[in-house]
Known about the structure:
By secondary structure, the chain is mainly α. It has one domain (2-115). 81% of the residues lie in helices and 0% in strands. It contains five helices and no strands. It starts with a helix and ends with a helix.
Amino acid sequence: xxxxxxxxxxxxxxxxxxxxxxxxxxxxxxxxxxxxxxxxxxxxxxxxxxxxxxxxxxxxxxxxxxxxxxxxxxxxxxxxxxxxxxxxxxxxxxxxxxxxxxxxxxxxxxxxxxxx
Length: 116
């Protein structure tokens, strides 16, 4: 049981190191660069693999797990980008609404002053 626990710990550590490698190499900036055939590290596992293979953390993870870990990593980045985009759009629309609302209050207060 003890050796099985140790083995599991080693696997988890290797997976964590591979995730760190993904975070270092597979970034939004890296996704902008396209290959001659239009592939990016976000759209093509084979393209991403070429960048990852040079690091020994790549070989420490089982072959069957690498692609799914990469895919989850890319999906997480895309999800975060979408959230940021949505938040920025919300802030812009709130800012527009806020300036319109403040003009209403200003014009309302002027009318009150005019009545006096």
